[in-house]
Amino acid sequence: MQGDVESILLTEAQISRRVEELGREIARFYQDSQDGIVIVPILSGSIVFLADLIRKLPIRMRIGMAIASSYVGTTIRPEGARLLARLLPRIKDREVLIVDDILDTGGTLRLVQQNIAEGEPRRICTAVLLRKPGKAPPDVAVDFVGFDIEDRFVVGYGLDYNDLYRNLPYIGVLRPELYED
Ligand code: 5GP
Ligand code: MG
User: Fold this and answer.
1) 3-class SS string, the chain
2) Torsion sign, CA atoms 45, 100, 51, 24
3) Is residue 36 a contact partner of residue 61, using CB atoms and an 8 Å limit?
């Protein structure tokens, strides 16, 4: 599996340092919210980021989840994101923090942000580990970003290709012959 990766973009140590910083940033941001926040990770890509991030967040929190899919299987699937399921504690009048692995075209986040907004939370903020440059339209706002990366299809640390590679501890690019398109 490790041999399938052509180059490593972000090492385990780089990710861990940045997630710790993000945790401090986010904890400071929410320090005055007495009744805590509701974290809504978008599955499955955000699971590793979520697990590391919440352990760096010493604040009161409840965790729900939203399951979305944009790329089913392969790297490119132009018909856009779909919300497959959600499982949430009460969000009305509460602070909601959506967590996703990567902001690319913004389709997935827009969908989840709009859906969460219908539940009338006090405020919605969004944290992503990765952001690709300049592709997301301005209406898709993100408040916390781990890394800006170049526009390549990456895997590892939760991100998959054909449902594989999520367990790589770093983020990298696969050898080109492994991609189907
Ligand atoms: P968007 O809807 O912003 O175009 O894409 C967001 C979703 O597409 C992410 O949650 C992620 O699941 C998937 N995605 C976008 N770019 C990449 C990438 O480079 N690698 C992987 N593995 N998934 C990606
Ligand atoms: Mg995803």
Assistant:
1) CHHHEEEEEECHHHHHHHHHHHHHHHHHHCCCCCCCEEEEEEECCCHHHHHHHHCCCCCCEEECEEEEECCCCCCCCCCCCEEEEEECCCCCCCEEEEEEEEECCCHHHHHHHHHHHCCCCCEEEEEEEEECCCCCCCCCCCCEEEEECCCCCEEECCECECCECCCCCCEEEECHHHCCC
2) positive
3) yes
Quick one: tokens of 105?
């075209």
d(CA 32, ligand 2 centre) in Å = 30
- Chain-centroid distance of CA 8 in Å reads 19
- pTM here is 0.93
101 Cα nearest atom in ligand 1: 10
Q: Token digits for 161?
A: 């290709």
Residue 72 pLDDT > 90, yes or no?
A: no
Q: Which pLDDT score, from 0 to 100, does residue 181 have?
A: 65
104 is catalytic: yes
